[in-house]
Amino acid sequence: MFKNSCMSKKVLLLCGSPRPNGNTAQVTEECAKVIRGRGLEAEVYSLAGKSVGSCTACYRCKDEGVCVLDDCLNEIIDRLHESDGFIVASPVYFGTARADVMAALQRIGMVSMATDNFLSWKVGGPVAIARRGGHTAAIQEMLMFFFINEMIVPGSNYWNMVFGRDPGQVWNDVEGMATVRLFAENVAELITRIA
After folding, report:
1. pLDDT at residue number 195
2. C-alpha distance from residue 140 to each of 14, 38, 44, 102, 128 (Å)
3. Mean pLDDT computed over 60-68
4. Which of 74, 79, 134, 149 is 20 to 30 A from residue 119's alpha carbon, by CA?
């Protein structure tokens, strides 16, 4: 009974790296694995090979119900409508989240607010991956999206950050990987409890 009720629950994980097999992709897949292990569906959507334009504040989404810019964003929004959770993983570029990630979040938030507030009460949060520093600034930057859209962000036993430069180095950060695994578990647990 428990497992069947959870299987209808889904988490969308946005991998914000342009590298399909880089550290951010590996961390995102690990989070998805944890969520699936808790009996929920998990779908990873990668921005690798895609381009996301910045919001132009045209406000046409209020009338059209979708973003009018022609890129992958409405595909992400469609998947979000079907999801109970949303995790966003970004590499850190010059101390902040990658620009494409923030452009996507800003536009997703705009469409949600302009339509039916579809983000409200979804469970999730940000994860930052970097070689050396800028993790906390990137997490704080992405958190603004979750909080202003009435989303629920569970914690972990540390901030959701993992260290690594070359692909695969994140696995050397044992504490960081344990932290994001616990975060993914808490996302799944909270979704299950709300259900």
Report:
1. 84
2. 17, 27, 22, 12, 10
3. 95
4. 134
The string of pLDDT tens digits covering residues 147-186 is 999 999 999 999 999 999 999 999 999 999 999 999 999 9
CB atoms closer than 10 angstroms to residue 104:
28
Q: Which CATH number describes the domain made up of 2-194?
A: 3.40.50.360
pLDDT of 4 over the 80 cut: no
What residues does each domain of the chain span? Answer: 2-194
How many Cβ atoms sit within 10 Å of the Cβ of residue 115?
A: 15
Phi, psi for residue 96 in degrees, rounded to 5: -135, 170
Report the alpha-carbon distance of residue 189 to residue 48 in Å, rounded: 29
Rounded distance between C-alpha atoms, residue 66 and residue 58, angstroms: 12
Give the residue carrying structure tokens 């690990």.
30
SS3 97: strand
Torsion sign over Cα 96, 100, 101, 107: positive
pLDDT at 33 over 60: yes
Q: How far apart are CA 101 and CA 112, in angstroms?
A: 16
